[in-house]
Amino acid sequence: MGNLHLVTGHAGAAHVTAADHGSLHAAIFGEGSYVLNRGSKFATTIISNNSIRVSDGDIIFQGRHIRLNEGTYVDLDVDNGTQGLSRNDLIVVRYTKNSVSGVEDANLVVIKGTASSGAATDPEYTSGDIINDHVLIADMPLFRVPLNGLNVQNIVPLYTEASLFPDGSVITNKIADRAVTAAKIADKAVTKAKLASGATYTAVTATLSTSGWASGEQTVSVSGVTTSNVVIVSPAPGSHVAYCDANVRCVAQASGKLTFACDDVPSANLTVNIVIPT
């Protein structure tokens, strides 16, 4: 047997553990706790002042992948509020591990707060490090449930959405349109530094009107353009033929402006697509 643990390899016996998967997930997502951009993302519905419904979703909880299966939900009980007082309850994901069997489990739990005549505060929950300290219980707060007297108020999300990078610089829903792909990351065309602002580009359109040409030129306002940044210009599909026939091209840029030139004034308005990398 080697002096390394080959996780994704045939060993002739069961050898891949929850800790193995947890370590990999933590390396990808970081050691925090996150809701993934999947399914209903644990959307809540107030059924009554004593019942909150939590819909399906996926979580990475300190490396552990936890699911509420697609199309399912859990109804949670909320204790009665008190007339004239306010209270905050918490809905948490509770991780537990049996100290004898090692069996791990996860449940949605309501932690009841303390009623107050003043501003309500959140109740305490159990924090702990599953990965490094191997704690037997740990809570991940998902939602705050405020009660004003007997009535449940708007539920407040407390979670962080999962990120492509552990520092949170690129959350998963920002790459859902495939503007950022694994291939682009693999060849370093897209890097963490380039994505730190949370976006890869700004896309806008501009209209070159038939009446806007003067001496073969037209200047349009375009937000985001500077005197020196990179600007990518191309005609929209419906304007491509007329754009090319008139030999329209972008000839100058200034703060908030682009200047176009043409050999012949087009007979119709032209739509131009403009991409500004960030």
What does this entry look like structurally?
The structure is a single chain. The protein is mostly beta strands. Helices cover 10% and strands 38% of the residues. It has two domains: 18-157, Triple-stranded beta-helix (Sandwich); 201-277, no CATH class. A hairpin with a 2-residue loop joins strand 7 (137-148) and strand 8. The longest helix has 12 residues, at 18-29. The protein is elongated, with a radius of gyration of 27 Å.
The CATH superfamily of the largest domain is Phage fibre proteins
Report on the biggest sheet.
5 strands, antiparallel
| SSE string | HEEEEEEEEEHHEEEHEEE
Tally of contiguous helical segments: 4
Low-confidence stretches: none
Task: List the topology elements.
Blueprint: H1 18-29, E1 33-35, E2 44-48, E3 51-61, E4 64-77, E5 86-97, E6 104-111, E7 137-148, E8 151-152, E9 156-157, H2 182-186, H3 192-195, E10 201-208, E11 217-221, E12 232-235, H4 240-245, E13 249-254, E14 257-261, E15 270-277
Antiparallel strand pairs: 1-3, 2-3, 3-4, 5-6, 5-7, 7-8, 7-9, 10-15, 11-14, 12-15, 13-14
Write a concise synopsis of the structure shown.
This protein has 278 residues and is mostly beta strands. The chain has helices at 18-29, 182-186, 192-195, 240-245, and strands at residues 33-35, 44-48, 51-61, 64-77, 86-97, 104-111, 137-148, 151-152, 156-157, 201-208, 217-221, 232-235, 249-254, 257-261, 270-277.
